[in-house]
Structure formats: C-alpha cells, structure tokens
Amino acid sequence: MRAVVYRETGPSSVLTLVERDLPEPGPGEVRVRLVRAGVNPTDWKFRAGMMSGYDEVTPGQDGAGVVDAVGAGVTGLGTGDRVWLVLAQHGRAYGTAAEYTVQPADRVVPLPDGADFDLGASLGVPAVTAHRALTASEFGPARLGPGALAGRVVLVAGGAGAVGNAAIQLARWSGATVITTVSGPEKAALASSAGAHHTVDYTQGDTSARILELAPDGVDIAVEVAPAQNIGIDLDVVKTHGLVSIYANNGGDEMTMPLRAAFGKNLRFQFLILYTLDDGLLRAALEDVAAAVEAGALRVGEAAGVPLHHYPLAATAAAHDAVEGGAVGKVLIDVADG
C-alpha cells in the first residue's frame, strides 16, 4: 500500500510517499481502506516538532473509508461498512494519510448512507471538539440533540473555522440561538451558511456592545478560539453561571484576566483537548455527532460554509502547508476515488 510518512520532525518537506506492507488487524481492531483523509492543525504541528517517540509516523487523525478486514472480537462493524475515524493517529504511529489503516474498533464510527466521504473525513477533530465545547459535564456524558440547548445563546468566536463551523451547526441543531464573530464579509457569509443567526465583525467597532445588542441578557456559552485576545469580550458578554470553553491558543499562548469579573459572574472555564478526553465523554460525543450526521445537521461544502480543498495523497505536504497557511474551510486528501 501507499502511505505518507516522516522519520524526523520538521517542515512539510520531511513527508515522503512510500510503499508499505498491508497491515493486519489484531483482536479488537479493524482495517479501513481509506477514501478521504482530513487534515487538521494538529497534524502539521505534530510533524513540525510537537510529537516524537516513533521511528516513523503516518500523520492524520481523521478519515473516512470502507472496512475491509475485521479482527477477532469486533462486534457492530463488518467488511464493506462505510465508516469515519476519530483520533486515528493518537497513541499510535500510523494515521490516515495512507491507503489503509488499522484502528481500534472504538475509533471507527459507521457513516450513514446519505453522508459522503468528504463529510466523514471532516468530522473527527472539529466535530468532537465542538461537541465538548458545548457541553461541560465532568461526571457523566453530557449530550447534544434537538432541544438540548433550547433557549440558550451560544457565542462562537471565529465561526468560519472548522471547529467554529461545527459548533455553529451542532448548537443550531440543539436549539440554541447562535452568534458568531468573524473578520469580514466573506467569513460572515460562511458562518451564516453554517447556520449562525447573527454575525459580528470583530474588526469593526465595539464587539462586546454589538453582541449585547443581540443578546441583552448575555450569552450562555462562549466557544473560544483566541482567549489571549478575547477574554475581555467573554467576561463582558457571558452571563452569570455561564460557560467559557477554550479549545485553542490562537493569538497568544498566555491569557490574563481580572479575576473579580469572573468571580462576580460565577463563571465556569473549561479548557479542552481531545487527546486526554475521558472515554465516556468521547463516546457520548461520537454518538451525538453520528446522530447529527444522520439528521443532516452536520454538512460540509460551500453551501454549508465549509469550502473543500482537495489534494492527492502524493501532495500531502501541500495539504499540510495549506492548513498551516490558514486555508478557510476543510483540507482533504483524496486517498482513493469515492
């Protein structure tokens, strides 16, 4: 099989297309013939130097394809099943930038017939991150779904990004009113296509005041991508007993804030990353995301505010560069014909 690998961290030029033996699934594992692989910021960051410990790595946490072999003890999945993958390269050397990947069965999720492989490969990191950002239970699986956020107002910072777009779609599916901040008319159009009820251009005027014009009582949840820059806005607009969910460090690695302002509102802050997420919370997210896909509530493509950028497997380095360069939408690797 063909696979993209790197043997040392560094720029995208360390990625090489090679031939490797077809891997065999062990007990509790399945082998997936990949059709699409999704590229996320973590892929290029790991490749650039954040990850080590393996002699050789195939990048890629997300992907979609068809099960073609099943190991002993696997139930609920069979050969020929269309599936999508989550955390495919977490804790293992070989991810989704390859024609085949072997994965634990619990990281392989059935893909409904109405969903194409482009959507399947776009779920994983963005959709599961968005799910966690919209929930906050530490002691049981918090759930999304129709009516779960009815009457709530959700603020999504950077709604034109992959996680932001997924948060808009999941929040809207769950009944919330969604406000998102954007950096201009083009991204406002994308966020509106995703389902945002209101967009606020943070480059123009007083962002906090404009959000509070739309939600005079404040917002219940802020999904935050740039806390170092936006924490003042979050403190202004999140209501008492509200939640600030921080999933990225865009714009700076350190955040400072006036503590009394947070005390005064009894705010909850949640910092999240998928790689250490409790298994029960991950399973709840996968079930809800799958339900949203089944309902047609999660979509990709221009009409859904997620322009798609396709690269062949041999151009995985260019795909990494596109994500690192801030490509708007979703970057996908075409591993095989759909």
Question: Which key phrases capture this entry?
Answer:
338 residues; alpha/beta; Quinone Oxidoreductase, Chain A, domain 1; 2 domains; 6-stranded parallel β-sheet
Write the layout of secondary structure elements.
Blueprint: E1 2-5, E2 16-19, E3 29-39, H1 41-50, E4 62-70, E5 82-85, E6 100-104, E7 108-110, H2 117-122, H3 124-133, E8 153-157, H4 162-173, E9 177-182, H5 185-194, E10 198-201, H6 207-214, E11 219-224, H7 227-237, E12 238-246, H8 259-264, E13 268-271, H9 279-294, E14 308-312, H10 316-324, E15 330-334
Walk me through what this model shows.
This protein has 338 residues and is α/β, with parallel strands linked by helices. It folds into 2 domains: 2-123 and 298-334, Medium-chain alcohol dehydrogenases, catalytic domain (Quinone Oxidoreductase, Chain A, domain 1); 128-275, Quinone Oxidoreductase, Chain A, domain 1. Helix content is 29%, strand content 25%. It has 10 helices and 15 strands. The strands form 3 sheets. Strands 3, 4, 5, 6, 7, 14 and 15 form a 7-stranded mixed sheet that branches. The protein has a 6-stranded parallel sheet with strand order 10-9-8-11-12-13, with helices on both faces. α3 (124-133) crosses α9. It starts with a strand and ends with a strand. 46% of the residues are buried.
